[in-house]
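Notes continue from the previous slide.

Worked example: a multi-chain complex. Inputs as given:
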Amino acid sequence: MAFKLRIVPDVRDLIQEQRDRKILLPYVTVKSAGHQSDRLELNLVLQAMAISRKRPTRSQFYIAAIGAEITLTAIGAEIIDYTKSSSIPVEYTTSRQTEKGRVGKIDPELKSELGKAKAEVKVGTFEMSSKETRGSSVKYSSEEDVVVATAFADTIRWNIDIPRGEKAVRDFLLGNRLLHATFKWKGTARKGKIQSRSDILFFDSNKRVLSPLASLMMRFVLWRQKINLGDAAEYQGFLSEAA
Amino acid sequence: MIENDENPFIKPLQIDEETMETLQRVAAIDQDEIEVALEAMGGNEEIFREFGKQTGITDLLEFQQLSRLIRIRDQHKALPDAFQPSISSGMKSFLSGLGIGIGLGILFAPMSGEETRNNLTQRASDLADAARDLIGEGRERVRSTMSAIRGQAERSSQKEGTGAD
């Protein structure tokens, strides 16, 4: 008999308004990966919210995440493959007309340790070059989005972070992150869970991060106004059923 | 710019004037206006605990700190005026400790992307200034050395000329 994994609850069941109030939406798709094996594909949608007054004005605050943690457990199964640690290179170039013209380069590095996983991140290299024609440009290259994967027994944990400190392009996590994991089941019982959690913080109108205490107080104020922010489906379970 | 309000991943959230003002007063906790922020956020410890339970954040350090602050605030409010000074001094020392913590947090908070970009441009410009000064200084040094050598050469050739006569 063929089996199919069912995800409960499924983020797709939320209405649009509910989805728009969530910082992290984990869309899970299950595909068969051959005999006794399943591949789980996670499309993490990281969103932000721009708070403004009801009349048309500039956004006063932003709500977003600077980090997220996804833990996937397939009870008793063997992990065959999964998304490994990675980072996204960032290239940023700006130019302007000046009366100066020389060359320079700064290349700092950051080494961090996250649980058992270690990550080495180049904080950024920036080069300044110019010609006698009085034009100058600044090129900033870095790795701003870091995924650290840790696998242990039947569990995989992914930590998605924006490195602390200077960031030239992004202030918070936005967009899609695609993760996957393939399991080989050992018995007939096929079940597990996915836990998704993000670090929700508030940012001012210049996208400068506010303190965690201020963020918590502001979240409380909105909650009292029935605006409940958070991550959609913090816990999702999956179990097999006859196809 | 990647982050702007037209970005499909940034969802608009419109709130009324009163809630916006409350948020602004609460955000003032980052400028050490702790009492103003606490007063503005309203609620009580019970409601706050319910909020923590519903959002699953009761294990956060900030949640526990804030619960304690709300308790002190509400105890302070409940006391008759005659008893307030003694509580007030205890609360003030707690708040000043918290204020130092928040102040340090803000001091070491990272800059926003826009500020970082401006900062990078400024640093590059400073670097260029320094390089220009160095090159200018070097050029000046070469020029003065050359003129010293030229002067010396002219003097010796004049001496030789005089000797030949």
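Summary box: The radius of gyration of chain B is 33 Å. Helices of chain B lie at 17-27, 34-41, 45-55, 61-78, 84-107, 113-164.
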